[in-house]
Amino acid sequence: MAKIQPPNLRESEVWKSIFRPGSIYRKGYKDTSRDRALATMNNVLWHLHPTKVKRHGLKLTYTFCLGGLSFFLFVLLTITGIFLMFFYRPMADIGGAQAYTDMQTIRTSVFFGDLVRNMHRWGAHLMVLSVTLHMARVFYTGAYKPPREFNWVVGVVLLFLTLGLSFTGYLLPWDQLAIWAVTVGTSLAGYSPFIAKQANFLLLGGAIVSPNTLLRWYVLHVLALPFVLVLFLAVHFWRIRKDGGISGPL
Amino acid sequence: MTWEEVHKDMDAYQAALTAQSSSGVDRRVAEGRARRAGVRAYLKAHPDEEAAHAAQARAAAPAGAAPAAAAAGGNGGAAAPVAAPVGAGVAVAAAPITAAVREAPLPTGNIPEPKKGAPDKHRLLAIVPPEGIQRVEREQGDRVHTWPHLLLEEFIAMAILFAGLLVFSSLINAPLRELANPNLTPNPSKAPWYFLGLQELLRYFHPMVAGIVIPTFILVGLAAVPYVDRNPSIKPGDRKVAITLFTILFMFGAVLTIIGSFFRGPGYNWIWPWTQGVFFEL
User: Fold this and answer.
1) What is the pTM for the complete model shown?
2) In this model, does residue A197 exceed pLDDT 90?
3) Spelled out in words, what is the top-level CATH class assigned to the domain A61-242?
4) Which of A26, A167, A192, B251 is the most buried (most CB within 10 A)?
């Protein structure tokens, strides 16, 4: 009886088509300088990094990992946010505030719904904090100095977008906390010179916080602002590489 | 490892390297000269090995060179010095000090015909001394591999944050109040915490100042930081003014936010959180 050989997966054409020549997933990983570099180079995510980094950048008290953790929180918020989108409708017409009842359903009936919502909310607050602290870290290490001036400006835009994402998300539960916090927060736009009415209308889709506002902010929150943020993130990361990696040492 | 990379005579190599380095030549030039000195010293002490090496180099010379030699004609004299180091490789370093005969590869004679009407120019292959090469590459500096050093650190930071958030979220529920009611204003009404600094400013300034002028100033001012602060140093000792200013403004914002969050109660009036309680929701 012929012995059946198990197919060697690593020699198959499919495997080879997935992993690039030189990939450690083709020939195996040996702890050599070459394979360490290839491990970073041949991975689409890790390729955000150069193959080598300045040693002082590893020191926890230099970066506190704040930029990386902000990005991680953004990814986490995207994943939990997509989960929540399956159970949420941004509608709040008179007689049937689906947005609010969906929130209650998420909390009581959806499997892991409450946990995921908690993570989304706490993670969002944490992201505002981590982005702010990241900015402070960059200031104190002088990392905005040439050639990194423009990347600091991109970072300020990212901070602004983070606040915008957090604030638009704040309205979505459509409870008393949400609409009054948003009412207070947006009331200031009514004092802008010359364009007070227009600014308010643009923000709220009406004179006051209304179901129109809910739909408008929902679209901003789940689509428009994340899209813009990802664009600026791409520029931010790309410029870190192009401007010579981590700044310093002090 | 090739023949030339072995530092045959380490003492001679070190002595030459020290002498070259102290005379101020470029590091790479100094290393090259020291290596040459080391090989020379070694070959002087071992003449038999030199002969063997010369024979080896002769055998390695291009085999096709000899038959083509006849066609080369008068050009041979000019071409030979150029071709020698290319064909003979490493042996050239040892050549001047020994009597061993070493043949240069002969010119091939394959001289291309110039195109008709082409301007009467010719190209030259030149040997450039190492001193003539300007070093443009960046200093490598003290670098470590991203994998495993940085990626492991990032992974651990991520895992700790994720675990912390997971535990916190399982223990503490995010607030969800009663259904929104535009006709029932809660007392106090507060903005999200990151805007409470601005809401606090509303107590002291006209809304136009607190709500428009100051936020615009903060955003534009932040973006302008690298263009205003032209001090090139990143040493904290050289940046006392910048660091002091930033710290004061940052603390100012933090204090206003904390006051707005914890020290403001019904009617947005001042309270002490330890007596009247906290009027703050995330």
Assistant:
1) 0.74
2) no
3) mainly alpha
4) A167
